[in-house]
Design brief:
Number of helices: 2
Radius of gyration: 22 Å
Order of helices and strands: HHEEE
Distance between the termini: 80 Å
Helix content: 10-25%
Largest sheet: 3 strands, antiparallel
Structural class: alpha+beta
Strand order of the largest sheet: 1-2-3
Amino acid sequence: MRPSGEPGRAQVADQSRPSAGPDIRLPADPHRLPPPAEWFAADAERHLLDRPRVCPMCGAGLDGGLVSESWSGDQRIFVTWCARCRWMGDVVRYDKVAIDEPEH
């Protein structure tokens, strides 16, 4: 007799086969993407990939905070609020940045 909680051979073999339904052990996806045919699907995907993940002030994760994206011209602006330190501000993503450094 096996100790309780130890899987038997049949249970291990069942876990290795692909299942027909969703895996009920996984939590629901909080960032469900729209269907690929929708006009904004690519923008939604880029938002999830590019959004800030940590607070620029304290370094805490922004999962409990707020990250909202807007656009100004070709700039992508992420209005960000941190639940830990209460910092609120804009995080701006640029494709290219040109910086002039003054002579010393």
